[in-house]
Amino acid sequence: MDFTEDTAVAAVKDTIAPDTDPRLAELVGGLVDHLHAYVREVRPTVEEWTAAIEFLTAVGQKCDDTRQEFVLLSDVLGVSMLVETINGQDTGTESTVLGPFHMTESPRREIRDSIDELTGGRDCVVELRVLGADDTPLPGAEVDIWQATAEGFYDVQQPDVQPAGNGRGLFSADDDGRVWFRTVVPSHYPVPTDGPVGDLLGALGRHAFRPAHVHVLATADGHRELTTHLFVAGSSYIDSDAVFAVKKSLIVDFERIEDPEVAARYGLDAGFRLARYDVVLDPARVDVA
Ligand code: BEZ
Ligand code: FE
Fold this sequence. Notes:
Strand content: 15-25%
Distance between the termini: 41 Å
Largest sheet: 5 strands, mixed
Bound molecules: benzoic acid, fe (iii) ion
Number of helices: 7
Order of helices and strands: HHHHHEEEEEHEEEEEHE
C-alpha cells in the first residue's frame, strides 16, 4: 500500500500487534489518529516540524530532579487540568492540579501550629473539616498542605531565605475531622518562565501568573485521595490562571476577623484573615475484576 494522506493512519496502526495490551493499543492508536489529523489540518512545513521537535527536545533537556518542564507544558496547554477533570471525584470536593512544588515531604505539624516559620503566622488561619459521605467527619484523615509566601515564593525556590519545609505541613484531623493552622495569606505568583515553556508563553502573548492559593492533598482510609487548592477570593489572576486550575467551588473567602472573641478561639489578636472550608472525600472505588 502506498503511503498517502489517506492511508497514513492505517499504515501505522496496522503495525500494532494483535496481542498488544488492548488499553495500550487504544492509547497509542488514538494518538496516531489525532496527531495525523492535526498534521493534515495545520500542514506544517518540514522546517516547522523540525522546530516543534527542537522545542520538545528543549523541554526534555530542562527537566531534572526538581524541575518538570513537560508537566509545565501539559499545565499551560490545559491538558493537566483536562485529565484532572475527567478523573475528578464523583460528588466530593473538586480536584485540581498537583503542580510541581509538592516535591519535598512536608514536616509533620500539630493542629494550631504555624506553617509559616518566618513570621509565626499571625496573619491568617486556615481551618478545614475533612468529611466523607453524608458529611460524616473523618478523624485521623491526613492533610498535606503547601503554599507560597506572601511574596509568592515556595521554600524550594528560596533556599537561602526560607527554611526547608516553610509553608508546608502534614496534619492529622482531630475527632471532628478538623485541621486548623496558622499561616500567611499567599500571594499570586508566576509559573517558572526561565525555560522553553516560558518562551512559548511569551511568544503567544500569554501571562504566566497563577492566582493565590493553598494546596491541599487529603487522604483517609476507605476514601479516594483528593488533590486540590483553596483559591483566595479576590486574588489577582483568579479569572485567568495560567494553568486553568480554578474552579468556582474552590474559591474561598479569606474573611477578616475583627471580633476579639472569635480571634481568641484561635489564640490570636483580632485583625487576621480566616479561611474555612469543608473537604469532602468520595468513597474509594472498588475495582471490578
Ligand atoms: C502550583 O500551583 O504550584 C503550580 C501548578 C502548575 C504549574 C506551576 C505551578
Ligand atoms: Fe502553587
